[in-house]
Write a structure and sequence with these properties.
The complex is a heterotrimer. Chain A has 19 helices and no strands. By secondary structure, chain A is mostly helical. The structure holds copper (II) ion.
Chain lengths: 545, 113, 228
């Protein structure tokens, strides 16, 4: 990831074929590129860096939680978990799959030479970098202690930390997200190759299209909310401060109008990856293609009418809460459709247990747990008891880490040969997948119990009787950390020493597997004409069945 | 790709729309000087929506664009309404009192509020 | 595909004339993509302003008394004049797009410059209004007093919203003027003609959108809830 350079240096590859990686050399050819594949690599490097910065914060506060009284000062602890949340949500999870894998794959999957607006795509990366630098500046100068939610009036009035810099960082990064989403929407509508009808689109494209809609419709509201917050902090005018006539709950309405749908920005692309992987390694067409495709769209729409479930205990109207609770249960339906359809795809399939498939298994199990515990939280009664406890922390980490990060790493393995032309070492990869799965569960399952027992989140200290479970969780976190470093190492190793990948190492279907690995700059020599459905594994089924 | 006939608007149409917009501006200012209570805002918004529709339909040429683009325009407005309506529903109903369980006020049950 | 139908030389010429970028198959596809992209961008703008309109709606219903009392500081004449100015600028913008569609270079430049003049007049009037607020001590957070004093905080919120919304709108106007300057330069160099005018059309859409925002701001801020 971080070193693409060795490839240029390898003579045999340059001799073999010109591709998007070796067509031009030098830093300028990267920083001024408009090739969606190169921009995807730039994004991959940046979000990986941010992932490890955010992960480091997590390691540090997990160390703090080894002792009931805490090890660091309370202020330090607050800054650590806030930095972890802000970096992981806005600088890793939101851009993770869309800006990297989807950026790389969507033009290829629809049979186009590039995204509709290549220069806008590059611009979005620069905007992301500026946002990330602003946020890192806030972290280095002393951090933010508001949590990733920036709740007013604490953030606008009382906090003595670097709220403005961090908020502007998030504000800026929001525009990069908007531009990515806009580019995907237009690309899917206007750049499809002849014969690539909507019902032939890979499900990965569908899910990223739905994600694009959320990014475009939700993110501007986050932007204006953070601006209002910043202005209140600068001028003390009381838009959100109840002391001077404002209403802090309005901040939460506007914030969650974006941030609940943002949860689906973070999970929908992962669902798309899983659809691709499950179909490929079951050697079967995805069961109920139409249902899976439309469930993505249903999720995108429904995600905008459930935000109030974050505010059941804030003083939001009880009647509004009732409506939001009901709607939150509704959004479980399309999610469940996806899980059932993946399972049905595997049923009677000829399943091979390659590394990406292991991650898909992990995703399905962990996402189901994360999703079902979400229903506990959507219910008004249980939410009162579990809101603001570790139960909620465990719930969203099962969705975000158990779901999205699993899908991201799985998808990275799946398309790594396509992106780099090299295979990763299969044995190591399986080992790492296992470690990640075990480490993840050890980290977050105890947190369900802790939350159920009533341990509140965001405290640097806790009663001594919770220590055993906290130590288990911290131990799990260190295993999880190792699990993430192993792929990092062998991916880098594979760039130079990995086995060369052919055009289609997994015998998968889809336009991306019909072109060389790595692809050339314009992806296709001649515009492809699509005549088949997606996931046309029909012949193989006959041989197997 | 769709057939691309560039629809060039007539100058007369554009000028008429302009005149209508100016008239509506005068109208909304004039109407606002009367007291209709809550209806003032309704009338003002109705006029504003009419004006905006004229701009969208003629000046921005939505009368000539594809159904897809129209769908996008409508989607933007629908989402704006979702945000305003659901947020407003909270504020409208926040102070509704509700009848607690009847026995809660009944001294015979030994419970009081 | 067009490639097989048209001789290579002619196709190249056409691509040059229509500024066709390499990843599009036809100029039509390029224009379609730009149009959809622009409308998608305008949707994000709707929701961006929408956040402020939501806050405005909430506080206006929450504090009707304070809201009514702020009305005497809103200058209906200046607001109304600005509305008229913006409507005129929208007309000239629409005429500019028409001129581009008809390859009338001089008309195009003329109407673009007229649009810029109207835009500048709008900003000048806005500046006069802002100056009046400064003089009257009605700049929230920095220079603010209010009578009756029990409305102080609530009035400050409403004035904040006034400044947020008109300020954000004014920023969009300034950006629009920048874009128009770019268009004038390009038009002067003779880039636009009947087969290539997408930038004029797209920036026109943006300009009309900014006009629409004002069409809603004017009654909401200057007209409703006013005691006369
Ligand atoms: Cu939520």
């Amino acid at each position: 990831m971080a070193t693409i350079a060795p490839i240029h240096g390898t003579p045999e590859l340059s001799e073999r074929r010109v591709n998007y990686l070796n067509v031009e050399h030098g830093w300028k050819s990267w920083l001024f590129t408009t090739d969606h594949k190169r921009i995807a690599i730039l994004y991959l490097i940046s979000i990986t860096l941010m992932f490890f910065v955010g992960g480091l914060m997590a390691v540090l506060f997990r160390i703090n939680l080894l002792e009931p009284e805490g090890i660091f000062a309370p202020e330090t602890y607050n800054r650590l978990f806030s930095a972890h949340g802000i970096i992981m949500v806005f600088f890793f999870l939101v851009p993770s799959i869309p800006a990297t894998l989807a950026n790389f794959l969507i033009p290829i999957m629809v049979g186009a030479k590039d995204l509709a607006f290549p220069r806008v795509n590059l611009l979005s990366w620069y905007i992301y970098v500026v946002g990330a630098l602003l946020t890192l500046y806030a972290v280095i100068r002393g951090g933010v202690d508001t949590g990733w939610t920036f709740y007013a009036p604490y953030s606008s009035t009382y906090s003595n930390s670097y709220v403005l810099a961090a908020a502007f960082g998030v504000f800026t990064a929001g525009f990069s997200s908007i531009l990515t989403g806009l580019n995907f929407i237009v690309t899917v509508h206007k750049m499809r190759a002849p014969g690539m009808t909507w019902s032939r689109l890979p499900l990965f494209v569908w899910s990223n299209y739905a994600t694009g809609l959320i990014q475009v419709l939700g993110t501007p509201v986050l932007a204006i909310t953070l601006l209002l917050l910043a202005f209140e902090r600068i001028a003390h005018v009381g838009i959100f401060d109840p002391n001077i006539g404002g209403d802090p709950i309005l901040f939460q309405h506007l914030f969650w109008f974006y941030s609940h749908p943002a949860v689906y920005i973070m999970i929908l692309p992962g669902m798309g990856v899983i659809s691709e992987i499950v179909s490929c390694f079951s050697h079967k067409r995805v069961f109920g293609y139409n249902f899976v495709a439309f469930s993505s769209m249903a999720i995108a729409v429904l995600s905008f009418v459930v935000w109030g479930h974050h505010m059941f205990i804030t003083g939001e109207s009880m009647y509004t809460s009732l409506a939001f609770s009901f709607l939150s249960f509704m959004v479980a339906v399309p999610s469940a459709i996806k899980v059932f359809n993946w399972t049905a795809t595997m049923y009677k399939g000829s399943i091979s247990f390659d590394t990406p498939m292991l991650y898909a298994f992990g995703f399905i199990g962990l996402f189901t747990i994360g999703g079902l515990t979400g229903l506990y939280l959507a219910a008004l009664g249980t939410d009162v008891a579990t809101h603001g406890t570790y139960f909620i922390v465990a719930h969203f980490h099962y969705v975000m880490v158990g779901g999205m990060v699993m899908a991201f790493v799985g998808g990275l393995h799946f398309w790594w040969p396509k992106m780099t032309g090299r295979m990763y070492p299969e044995a190591w990869a399986k080992f790492a997948a296992l470690i990640i799965f075990l480490g993840f569960n050890l980290t977050f399952f105890p947190q369900f119990i802790l939350g159920y027992l009533g341990m509140p989140r965001r405290y640097h200290a806790y009663p001594p009787e919770f220590q055993a479970l906290n130590v288990l969780s911290s131990a799990g976190a260190s295993i999880l950390g190792v699990g993430y470093v192993i792929p990092m190492i062998y991916f880098l190793w594979s760039l130079k020493y990995g086995k060369r990948a052919g055009m289609n190492p997994y015998d998968a279907r889809g336009l991306e597997w019909t072109i060389p690995s790595p692809p050339t700059t314009f992806n296709f020599d001649t515009t492809p004409v699509v005549t088949q459905e997606a996931y046309d594994y029909g012949e193989l089924e006959e041989v197997v069945g | 790709m769709s057939a691309h006939e560039v629809a060039i608007p007539k100058v007369k149409t554009l000028v008429l729309v302009w005149a209508a917009l100016i008239c509506f501006t005068a109208l909304t200012t004039w109407v606002a000087s009367f007291e209709f209570g809550e209806w003032n805002i309704v009338i003002a918004l109705l006029i504003a929506v009419t004006k905006a529709s004229l701009v969208v339909w003629i000046f921005m040429g939505v009368r000539h664009v594809t159904t897809l683009t129209r769908l996008f325009v409508v989607a933007g407005l629908v989402w704006l309404f979702i945000m305003i309506l659901l947020t407003a529903s909270d504020y409208k109903t926040r102070n509704w009192t509700y009848q607690a369980q009847p026995w809660a006020n009944n001294p015979a049950h030994g419970l009081s509020r | 595909m067009a490639e097989t139908l048209v001789p290579a030389g002619q196709e190249e010429l056409e691509a040059q004339e229509t500024h066709l970028r390499h990843h599009f198959a036809t100029p039509e596809q390029q224009t379609d993509a730009a149009t959809l992209g622009m409308w998608t961008f305008l949707i994000t703008e709707v929701l961006f302003f929408g956040g402020m309109f939501t806050a405005y709606a909430i506080y206006r219903t929450m504090y009707p008394g304070a809201f009514a009392s702020t009305s005497e500081f809103m200058d209906v004449r200046l607001g109304g004049a600005n509305t008229a100015v913006l409507i005129c600028s929208s007309l000239t913008m629409a005429l500019a797009v028409r001129a581009a569609q008809l390859s009338r270079r001089k008309d195009l430049i003329r109407f673009l410059i007229l649009t810029m003049i109207f835009g500048t007049v709008f900003l000048v009037i806005k500046g006069i209004e802002y100056h009046a607020k400064w003089v009257e001590y009605k700049v929230p957070g920095f220079r603010f007093t209010y009578e009756p004093s029990y409305y102080f905080h609530h009035a400050q919120i409403l004035f904040s919203l006034y400044f947020y919304m008109t300020g954000m709108h004014a920023i969009h106007m300034v950006v629009g003027l920048g874009l128009l300057t770019y268009l004038v330069i390009q038009a002067w160099r003779g880039i636009f003609h009947a087969r290539y005018f997408a930038p004029v059309e797209m920036i026109g859409l943006y300009w009309h959108f900014v006009d629409i925002v004002w069409i809603f701001l004017f009654p909401l801020l200057y007209l409703i809830g006013h005691k006369r």
